[in-house]
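Researcher: Please translate sequence to structure tokens.
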Amino acid sequence: MEQELRLSSWLPTTKKECKIRGWDELDVILFSGDAYVDHPSFGPAVIGRLLESYGLRVAIVPQPSVTDNLQDFEKLGKPRLFFGVTSGVMDSMVSNYTASKRRRDKDAYTPNGDKGLRPDYATIVYSKILKEKYPDTPVLIGGIEASLRRVTHYDYWSDKLKPSILKESGADILVYGMGEQPLKEIVTLMQKGVPFSSLKTIKQTAYLQPKEEPLQKNKNWVDKRLSSHEACLADKKTFAANFKTIEQESNKTYGGRILQDIDDEVLVINPPYPTMLEKEIDASFDLPYTRLPHPKYSKRGPIPAFEMIKFSINTHRGCFGGCSFCTISAHQGKFIASRSKESILKEVDQVASMPDFKGYLSDIGGPSANMYQMKGKVQEICDKCVAPSCINPVICSNLDTSHAPMTDLYQAVDKHPKIKKSFIGSGIRYDMLVPDFNKNADPQELEDYTEEVITNHVSGRLKVAPEHTSDKVLKLMRKPSFSNFHDFKKIFDKINLRKKLNLQLIPYFISSHPQSEIEDMANMAAETKDMGFQLEQVQGFTPTPMTVATVIYYSGYHPYTLEKMDTPKTAQEKEEQHRFFFWYKKENQAWIRKSLTKIGRHDLLNKLLPKGGTNTYKKDFKSKNTFDDTVDVPKGIINKKSKPTRGKRNQDGFVSVLDKNKKTEEPFKKRKPKKRRR
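Model: Translation complete:
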């Protein structure tokens, strides 16, 4: 009986678990490329719990086998309403392959990190199988893979331009972005008897229909027609020009309906919903999650992705940074949906009550930690805005960038009797903490927030992402000038010294981004060396669908200006850019001398490798080669008091976060927390 009660706390995954609930028929069956973790950070669990809250009987089939007789697709039978399909929390190709197209050693969303349980292009594979076995049952696809591939897109791993994923998968409808709002409307209408085939005017959905069929009318929508898929195949510039419309309409409060011809069909992408209200996002996080992996995995080892977020709190969704290489706004939206303080503190209480909780929250944040509760001062101005970023090239004067709500939240969390220390593990937009850049905010508020974070919420290293030092590359990235990082470092150093904290500031950088040349990388190496950094947190640019940078990578044109732009593409070009990160390694120095001499940059050579000077640091530790992954813990942490991590080395001799085993621990778990200075 105890086993049955425990199982019934999760959504059922087998027929036996359905019988425990007394169910003979299911309304919705979800198929996911991830292991089933019943936690609000895992999309399949969110959707399952949401549908359950509407009174539906929902089951989930996690990581169905596609290499046997396909019994996983038949074991639960046919649902009354529809099948739901997702690749999981990540695009399956990003999950399965590195930036250099090598298959990853681990899958972070599978027990024990085992690989091979998620097929390439998982959404397409699952959908095709279901449509073949149940041709009359609707298939709804969603999640980040479907969301970012909803229109003609470049696929880096096949090096091809692909049509909407609806075309390749055969699915009936696609829900893009965060799915709570469109799913509520879909379920409401279907429960009223509206046939699935008639669901044509639901916001934040996409579908295909024959060209000869008339489009459903909506007087509030303006149609935006893209160049056809065939035109994109014929001309890269045409493909690039499409993306401006796609990005602008996706980021509007009230976007238009996007249309694109694909063969003899028309792709229809309905406008997005307005940003979720506080009560709506609170409701999503307040669903009855167990916050644990399904018991079926108890003997298969820990799920790495779950272990990373097990004791973390998500405060908001969305990001208004608009970075040209990032997909967050394309999936979660540009506008911030923030939870209430009460909802967050309720979740903190739930986490603190977990039996294995030791008093440490690994993160309180979101896509960018310090955007919580930020929004336009005058909503009507935001409603008319088409800019992809609210903070580039300057911070919008209509954006309320007050950090006071976050400072207040962190302090409220730390007052909880079971919380010893809470960390900010999410990325922090350091530029928004520089008064000369963030002129909207009260300088005292910025100082209070920065001091609160540095003093009480850093585990030894504060990680920020300037991404590059070149102004031309940063402009293309939609990132601020590197001079702001210099300013932030002064602020950090001042607090660090005054508080005697002995913390490290760790900057992240990207190589091989469009517009980045060897001279830019040499400048980056020289400037960061001059600042006292020996770079560790670095990665190679990965072209993922639905970003400006990916469009440039494939087409050679900027989608907004149609200006020609170059991108490092060959393995040699990428490797040459990456080597400048590690100028201090002896095996790179002869090549650097030769390369900089060849282009006549003796000034940079003298800065990096001065004759008779010291070309290496006294600290001889393994630097993290993260050409394929951004990682958190190096092989042998710098702090001498810390035990070395036990990660599996890749072929270059470096450890990746996706390759770490269960014995690897975060640095903050190894340190005795410092007493807070009041």
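Researcher: Any highlights?
Model: The chain is about 30% helix and 15% strand.
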